[in-house]
Sequence to fold (858 residues):
Amino acid sequence: MEYVIEMLNIRKEFPGIVANDNVTLQVKKGEIHALLGENGAGKSTLMNVLFGLYQPEQGEIRVNGKPVKITSPNIANDLGIGMVHQHFMLVDPFTVTENIILGKEPSKAGKIDLKEASEEVRKLSEQYQLRVDPYAKIADISIGMQQRVEILKTLYRGAEILIFDEPTAVLTPQEIKELIYIMKALIKEGKSIILITHKLKEIMEVCDRVTVIRKGQGIGTVNVNETNPNELASLMVGREVLFKTEKTAATPSDVVLEVQELEVKDSRGVSAVRNLDLTVRAGEIVGIAGVDGNGQSELIEALAGLRKTTAGSIMLNGNEIRNLKPRKITEAGVGHIPEDRHKHGLVLDYSIGENIVLQTYYQRPFSKAGILNSKKIFEKARSLIKSYDVRTPSEYTPARALSGGNQQKAIIGREVDRNPDLLIAAQPTRGLDVGAIEFIHKRLIEQRDAGKAVLLISFELEEIMNVSDRIAVIYEGEIVAIVDPKETTEQELGLLMAGSKRTEAGGKQNV
Amino acid sequence: MSKYLSKLTSPLIAVILGLVVGAIIMLVSGYDPVAGYGSMVNGIIGDSYYVGESVRTIIPYILAGLAVAFAFRTGLFNIGVEGQLIVGWLAAVWVGIAFDLPRIIHLPLAILAGAAAGALWAFIPGYLKAKFRVHEVIVSIMLNYTALYVTNYLIRNVMTDKLDKTERIADTASLRSPFFESITDFSRMHWGIVVAIICVIIMWFLLERTKTGFELKAVGFNQHASEYAGMSVNKNIILSMVISGAFAGLAGAMEGLGTFGYAAVKGGFTGMGFDGIAVALLGANTAIGVVLAALLFGGLKAGALNMPLETGIPSEIVDIVIALIIFFVASSYFIRWIAARFKKGVK
Fold:
């Protein structure tokens, strides 16, 4: 069998850890090959070895059967290896064409020939059905389009093997469908694809074979049509994983959060939340389903006091908390797992212990008369690190050094430990692997069972369906429907999220 | 222990490299570097007079270094230390002249006036940053010039009648110490060294042990997370500048109340505020690091004065050495790389 890429028994060490140990990856021509592993399992390291960013200590790389030494990304490019990065490497004020030719500008007598380049970009875009406008500015096009520009960039440089690094993490469900379509078109044209992911659904849908790595070790390669998500999950995590979160029926009691006719403007001054009504009771999880950009972020920020609201009311346990300062809202009994854990959730340069007291550092016993009691602070940190299974070398380790899943566990530990009446969880599992997702869902349900109100915001329909007791669908800043997860389907929710009214979707009206 | 050692390696290497390159420059200029550095060391610790003068030089370096380092640690770049130092100098001298009080009140009052003036001068960029997001570097650079010319005007037209310097401060406001003078052969070493050491302890304690320091550093690292956690970002930005400015004002007060005993019209900046940036950089923005860096820079500056006397080597060579040290600290990445190569080679 002919392989386009062979990475044989790769070993890569960093000071103190072995990131890859005896990992073998063999990619056939014309296949979509998944590279599956938990966060921090060593997927990115392996791909950076292939892309010439790291040199392996041991092992061999072969391209089209020939042994090669890839010592820089330029060599990788010359060998026909292209990488579509998770965080796009694009210059915002430049046009699509300018970005694509960057570093490889075709020139005529010292002048960049943009016209010919644009023509070539247009042709490539047509060939692979990417529908990208070569003259559009990056700043003006959607995230999905920007990703296609990244794909075009690799194709323009003659890539035969494309590495996609977690490509769906930033996309909406619709954009994911289109990406899958594009990937299939690429294969038809004879390209090969390595897909780095921890999403099992995507693997089952598009991939031919999958190589699993766990904690830096190569676990093996399986054919996708001979496996199932359960088997893949246990290969990845190393134990059985429950997909359906187990929970009993909710027993909602008193109203904890009552939002009425709320109006919030976004940063540009455009109305983002309009006339929004929402109720969350003690002992239930209300999930907010919606496509990204329909006012979810503004709603959460308004609830947490991070954004001013223009009208309406937000009542917590019968008290108005609208437009109060974040600290007052926190003290009133709101816990908040923020959407962006690096921006809002953590001070990355602080130790994990200091982050654990980020909202309570000024209270006893952590400080007295303005003096911090670091003994008590780190005692608290140790106990939360233990009970929330935060894997960290110590409580003094900077938060930056932890993996995404462990950072998130620390945040959840911190928020839940304050015992808030209302817990707002915004995208709590974004970018996490199945093991961590399972853990976080369990904690949310525990909170509910302890008689707390939980508000869950997520773009993942599966998560909303699995965890929520009631689902509120948000569309253009309004709650357009409230549905029971047991009586609805993903199709119906999808239609509601796209703006079709409940009656048209065929269900009963109970907004 | 080894943790502290490794932190010291790259600044130490920078210092050594700076001195070596300085020696090469002396050689190619036709001077004897051994004699040159010898006379410099003599000028630092040669006899008790020189030791006293070195200590005196170090005092404002410590305080200016603390001012820059404090702002750095809380995410701000206070390039206006020079201006805050100048207004602190004048304010302290003004209190020293204008009042007639017992020493126990007069001296602390004059010192506090210096700190308050520096703090007020730094409040302006802090407030503008908090309120309108104007970058503190631009405002504080401008305020350096404002400070220079406003104080010159005040000295010439308000505090004196068209004279170039004010009258001397009252003895009750002076930091001069007959005791230090007697043990250092009548150098100008004064009590300011005690003030500087107290400030070092204050900076360390404030940043590492108090809830205010926790907030200040958090805001410096990540404003969004700080706001989310319920801290007031604007309040902390202003507070950070004010504290930094107070250190700078104290540096000026030490010069006014200790070294000189008056304030004079200045043709240009003192340079101490800008040297404070270098001190903070070399000291890695920590309280103890600032002390070590100030010892080095202050010592070099004081020792430099002796070089032309003993060997005829121009004292400017020391400015070159200081510049080289800063250059090598800034390229510490390069130094670490060489150190790593060296370690590998040894293995």
